[in-house]
Amino acid sequence: MAELKTKVNAASPAKFIDAIADEGRREECRALAKLMKKVTGSAPKMWGPSIVGFGSYHYVYKSGREGDWFLTGFSPRRQALTIYVMGGFEGHDALLQKLGRVKVSQGSCIYVKRIADLDMQVLESLVTASVKQLQKKDRVSA
After folding, report:
1. Is 43 helix (H, G, I), strand (E, B) or coil?
2. Among residues 66, 117, 59, which one has the least CA distance to residue 88?
C-alpha cells in the first residue's frame, strides 16, 4: 500500500501562519486556530506543508488500510480557505444551511473566500459535532 504523503510533522504552525503574505488571511487563520483549539483541546500541528490540524484519530478501512489523521483543521489555499470537518456533513444539513456563503465537498471540506462570510458560532457547532462523532467511533488522541 502507498504511504500517505500528508503526515504530521515538526514544522511550526505559528511560523506557517505568520508567513502568509495576506494580513487578512493571517488573521482569519489565527481565528480558526483559536476556534479549533477550543473545540478539540489540542495544540495545532502541521500536517504536510500547508495544513494546520488539531487532534488526531486512527482510522481503519474495511480494506484493512489504516492510518492517523487530524480531527479538524484548515489550509489557506490560493482559491479559498479550506476548512476540514473530518466527521463529514451527514446529519448536519440545518447547520450547513446557516453557515453562510460557502461551498462544500461531498466529503469533509468547506471552502470559503473569507471567514467574514461565515457564522462563526455555526462553524463552531459544526466542528464540535464532527469531533464528537469521530470520538465516538474511532480511537482519538490529542
Report:
1. coil
2. 59
pLDDT tens-digit profile of 13-44? 999 999 999 999 999 999 999 999 999 999 99
Question: Which parts of the chain fold into alpha helices (H)?
Answer: 13-18, 23-40, 93-99, 120-137
SS3 (DSSP) at 83: strand
CA-angle at 13, arms to 86 and 110, nearest 5°: 30
Torsion of CA 57, 107, 130, 8, to 10 degrees: 30
Domain boundaries, the chain: 50-137
Question: Global pTM?
Answer: 0.90
For residues 21-60, one letter each, b for 16 or more C-beta atoms within 10 angstroms of the residue's C-beta and e for the rest, the string is eeeeeeebbeebbebbeebbebebbbbeeebbbbbbbeee
Which residues contact residue 61 at a Cβ distance below 8 angstroms, ignoring those fewer than 6 apart?
none
